[in-house]
Amino acid sequence: MSRRALRRLRGEQRGQEEPDGDLDPEPPVPVAARRGRSGVSNLFELITAEESEDEPPSREEEADSRLGKQDAAGGKNKGAVTEEAEGDGEEAEQPVTQPQPVLSNKPRKKKKKRKTKKTSAGETLEDENLEDIDSLLEKIEDTSGLSQQTQGGIITDHRPLLYVEHRNLNPENELKRYFGARAVLGDQRPRQRQRHNARGTWLATPKDTWPRYSKTGITMQLLDTRRGVQYFTFKHHREYQQVQFKFLDAVESMDPNNIVPLLEALEPYHVDSLLQLSDVCRVQENQEMARDLIEQALYSLECSFHPVFSLTSGTCRLDYRRPENRAFFLALFKHLTFLEKRGCPRTALEFCKLILSLDPENDPLCVLLLIDFLSLRAREYTFLTRMFQEWESHRNLSQLPNFAFSVPLAYFFLSQQEERSELELSQARETAARLIQLALIMFPSVLLPLLDRCSVQPDARVASHPFFGLNAQISQPPALNQLTALYVGRAHPLWKDAAVMAWLETNVHEVLHVVEAGDPRVEECEHKRKTRYQSAPRNIYRHIILSEMKEAMAALPPEVTSQPVLGFDPLPPLDSIISYTRPERTTRPSNESTLSLFFQSLLPNFNLQGNIGRNRDEEAGVGQDLNQGVNRLMAAMQDMLANIQFQEPPRDDNPEGDGDWD
């Protein structure tokens, strides 16, 4: 029995005693009758009524029922008072009989009503917590007007296409749906999470191991607003520009160790340094550190957002031509790559939509080559089909191999959902068959590499047919070869399902019938392949480099592979908008001879002009030391040349051999 119940029990017994201490022989008064009296017989009831807000009302009724039983049995008042005296000495020292004041009952009844209302609300919340969180959020969205309707057998959403939800930017929410909150958070309570985060952020959550954040010298500026679209840009202050210049010097040294002092001493949240070191850690297979550095870069950039800049509206733009904005694009892209490898495709899709919303017209990182794959992995088939319907008219998405094959695959998966009506299923099946046949006619070179990556052997008719054979891969333009290699290398796991392969096989044979019948669409698609895809734009090359897909990297042209590619700014735009320039470094005198330049390459400390301004004595001593060093160097070179021995190549004893190549 709790202390409050005992206190109520003691108070009720005192209220039933006469001034002379005798017990009232009348039966106990019911609870409802006692509450209806004009006065309060026990002072402790007023205290209990205010303090027991968190207790359920059943305890009070239980205490009253126990009081009635004890009064009926009789002779137990003393024991109850003694037990209370042991639990609370101060209460035991008070006199047993006290004059009870007559108080109004209205405030007490009002508190009781509040108490009952609060308790019922708490019980309701406990019942609602057992429901799925996603279903509750869907109800909230339906009530806010963001409902979904069915058009043409497919559910369509009235929200903007590139609408970003904050809750989908947190990978922990996706992991909770897969494994449960207990597996993700462990023993950590929800109230204890993110307590160290003094500033609410959506893109990344700061950790205790990170350096303390302070102003980094990066701000965001609103440039213009046109037709409801806001154009922003990041801006580097003078101090940050100085750090940027030192970072460029460190990059030119080709030593990553020169970047670390910049983060330790000058600016721990220098974004380009974090991006470059992340690539170094990833090459060294330190994935955890690489991901952590990218999150630090995102956190630093988000803390410098303009107050009007919104991640979810889809109407905020950033120009990739400005070097200050490129770090944000690259950090988002590398972060979604880590999320996809981590097993969070839904969160990665949300970041992909965010990148596309920053510049949907130019798409500097060409995330259109990736968004279909993430949609299929996240099972967001409706989003992919809606994007194809809305953007096909002005973006020609069907001319990209990834959309040409992924959209019919999405319709096929929609046709397998049993919760849809029969009309919706039949429409989805017809659309999937029609689109996959058009994709096979337009891009026949995708089929055999896709089957090879899926470890599926095609039948003899398909393998020997010239339409899908080796000739289809050789005759295609180089740009199309890059796109097909990128799609096959990335999306082939989606086609390994047995039901998908059976559906693909049926449509491949239908395409062969169309080709053999001489359908004019075959010749039309062949003409499109020859006239288009002659050279890929620069954003596609940039996407292939960032994706690091081996098949696509091997198909890059020499003009791209021959130039150095930096992780913090791969293939910068040719029409960049430069806001500040790097100061020119000190150049060597133009009158240096070839011999002095040669010694400069061998001895970095050698400087022919460095002795100007010294006195003649020092000049003579330095010149003598220099001559001695040159003599030693020449002697070493002569010794090296004298020890070089040339070996004749081995002769072939059988020059008329078979000549078979491995």
TrEMBL record:
<feature type="compositionally biased region" description="Basic residues">
    <location>
        <begin position="106"/>
        <end position="118"/>
    </location>
</feature>
<protein>
    <submittedName>
        <fullName>TCF25 factor</fullName>
    </submittedName>
</protein>
<feature type="compositionally biased region" description="Basic and acidic residues">
    <location>
        <begin position="56"/>
        <end position="69"/>
    </location>
</feature>
<dbReference type="Pfam" id="PF04910">
    <property type="entry name" value="Tcf25"/>
</dbReference>
<dbReference type="InterPro" id="IPR006994">
    <property type="entry name" value="TCF25/Rqc1"/>
</dbReference>
<feature type="compositionally biased region" description="Acidic residues">
    <location>
        <begin position="83"/>
        <end position="93"/>
    </location>
</feature>
<dbReference type="GO" id="GO:1990112">
    <property type="term" value="C:RQC complex"/>
</dbReference>
<feature type="region of interest" description="Disordered">
    <location>
        <begin position="1"/>
        <end position="127"/>
    </location>
</feature>
